[in-house]
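Lab meeting notes turned into a lecture example. A postdoc, R.K., suggested we walk through two folding results consecutively so the class can see how the record format repeats. The first protein's sequence and structure tokens come next.
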Amino acid sequence: MSDTTINADPAELAKFSELAHRWWDPDSEFRPLHQINPLRLQWIQSHVPLSGLRVLDVGCGGGILSDSMARQGANVLGIDLAGKALKVAQLHALEAGTPNVRYREVSAEALAAEEPAGFDVVTCMEMLEHVPDPASVVRACGELVKPGGWVFISTINRNPKSFLFAIVGAEYVLNLLPRGTHEFAKFLRPSELAAHCRAAGLDLHGTRGMEYNPLTRRYWLSADTSVNYLIATRKA
């Protein structure tokens, strides 16, 4: 990817911008994000207490995770290239009085050039499956985090089960997500993501899967990484 190319799919940005006003409606298309957010936060804090740390949330969207990390005492910067979603995030922070959170419309790669090793923790959740070059984002995350700092990533595995659950089930049967939210070819196997992390100087410290029961509408973390999964890495 050249320096002049933005690592983003215009169609993806348009899709999330169109839904921007619904980010903070817990019964909207973003309901799954609201439901899994406590699990994501718990996973992060099981590795590193966030209070007092400088945290970057890459691909923050409307700020659901950014806001919750700031409420744990972190000094949070959320970045995204979907301008409308960022405006919603900023408005919510003002309305909710969330301390220590701000937002910028900038790519991870551009910010890495500005602030190398500038953050104690970097998160990149449910974002890599929406960009043309996920390795570039992971590399930028590795550049942005301080030595000894943590990078947390979540995405979707690529296999027949994930196609059935994350696309057919979630988008067409259960209507948990708008149709067309995901593209199967962009899903990442854990081995592929681990290779990107190693190339970025990030050591793998743990992996967890995230499961969903459509009957109870409950999400939980497990050892099953066959569909949604999270990884914890640390900069050498």
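The second example is placed directly after the first for contrast:
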Amino acid sequence: MAKGKKRSKEAKGRKITLKMAKNALKPTTDGKRRLDLSNMEIATFPKCILKLCDVDELDLSRNLLKKIPESIDKFVNLRWLDLHSNQLEQIPQAIGRLQNLYSLNLCNNRLNTHSLPHELGLLKNLRSLNLGMNSIESLPASVSALKQLRELGLFNNLLTSVPGCLKNLPNLDKLNINCNPIPPDNPPELDPIKRVECLYLVRESCLCDDCLQRCKAKRERLDSKTSGSPVHKRSMFAGLMTPNSVAQEDEAVWR
């Protein structure tokens, strides 16, 4: 009986109260306010945080969220939204009303082509968009309206060609499109764009089993290549794995 109750509790996830949310408020390096509810086993978007909708940054990463409500548009001042490593299957149309947003991280979810609303194209101030580690086969044409976009993560998806809309992004200078089934006879025609793989360090306990095995295999391959090097720095990152998100270069402190 006790085991059954435990499974039920895990399915519902952790309940967040307004008091808990207030305690999770943190100042940013530039004097703004960030609500950090990451890695708290949250399965349902906590309605109580709508009372804190004046925050500038919202971190709901590494939880169990399957849905983000349309009420996300209450966060009118939001400039940074991190939803990576959840179980999201759909992004609400209301996301397009977050006009101050400059960074959106949707990495490592369950998104596909139909999960991305055309309203993404309304985020005219967006500088960084991470869609890596999903099941996306193509991007909505509205992405071509993101004229301020500078960094785009599309790694570990199901793209069979480089989305044509990327040619209409004049400020895009960093693109990660690794680990997609793009045929070798269809190379990307994006020479001016730096194709990079940025890393974001996370603890092993924050990764799902599939991602953990994938990262371990990649680390073993890297170790085998560098085993002959006189300096071996693996011990510096004990308990940390990469990657599951694109890091922000202009952040003064690792989030």
